[in-house]
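Predict structure. Chain length: 425.
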Amino acid sequence: MPKFKIKKFFNSFRNKVLILSAIAITAAALLITKFFLKNEADNLNSGDSSVTQPENPEVKKSDPETFEKTLDKGIDSVLFNFGIKKEWIKTLYESTGGKTASNSPLKSPKWFAKELLIPKEISTIEINLDITNYIKTAGLSSTVNEDILSKAILINIYNPDSASSNPLLVKVSVKHSGKISRDAGVFAIILDNISSYNDEEIEKYLLNKNEFSFVFPRSLDKVNLQTKLLQNKKEVLINLTVGAKDNYDSDFNMSYDEKTVKEKVKSFSSDYPSISTVILTKPDAEVTNGKMDLISEELNNFNIRVINDSALLKLLTEAEVESKDKINKIVNSLKSKAKLSKTAITVLDIEPDEFEKFYNEILILKKLGHKFYSISEFLSEQEKRQTLEKIKEEKVKQELEEKKKQLKKSEIKQNQKKKIKQTKK
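Prediction complete.
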């Protein structure tokens, strides 16, 4: 009876069509799934194609020993891209006699385990993403466990093709620490030559970037660029010059008395109501600090902040500006200045054909921990730092005063005791 029903079912034309349709749909679904999964994996591995990422050691499934060493160095290189120091990474080689505590979550991997401390400003999600993308290039897979409160993570790296009873190869423990910090600088980069960018380049490179400020073009034939900068709420400054008595091309000169300076500043404020910061430059050696101070004070009266050209960091020599290796020299100079002064304002001329490479390098520096602020953000952060430093200085002074008082009190007590002893004698 059951055989008859099955035969009858397949003899039906309608049922045959249904079965064939189901098979076709299933096959199509499998092909689509395979296509999208492949594209997704490719996208994860490639990242943003417009951004040049630091190169990590290529990891391929060779002999186990070589594979293990390459993977170990590769994971470290991923971490170094975040500005993580070598001393913050502890590697435990279980396969060569490394020991872990019996109750440690790093107990079971076949190859090695790493314990990693990171500064609080680095997200564990970023670390996990970069390590995951890196190991995928070798055909490895991973899982991650997160502590909801501390945000610490434990990354487990597997060999999905392994027939072994223990396919777990590596464990990486990542925890935050408030006691460590990266060697990173805080910069305000002001781009000066944006008048040389055409409309397409302005849209492509400048208007969607928040890491920079711009010298506002004052030429009447740049009204379109001026409008775009203001409409997109870009951080803009104007470069005001203070020249010698016979320098009539400058915005101010040494022949101006206090009344003339006030009139010029009032006129400037009226002409450029959206400008809240200026660079004050003295192109001539005759210009005195007194005249610069007078102009600065009057600009401050109109709530316009002043950056003297002497406060600007010069990153390149004249020869280096013309160098083919200009962008790399800028990056190396920023790194070295970060170690010395930590904070800096600089003005740069970046040509349109240099901008893409320049911005890619800035993104790499940001990943290392360097910060790039607009000029107003930079000055605000600077004021906060100065306030905190003053508070610390005051606290140290108070502590010293308190110690002096305590010493005086103890001296008085000791003297009193001596007098009492002498009296008894």
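Summary: The chain has twelve helices and 13 strands.
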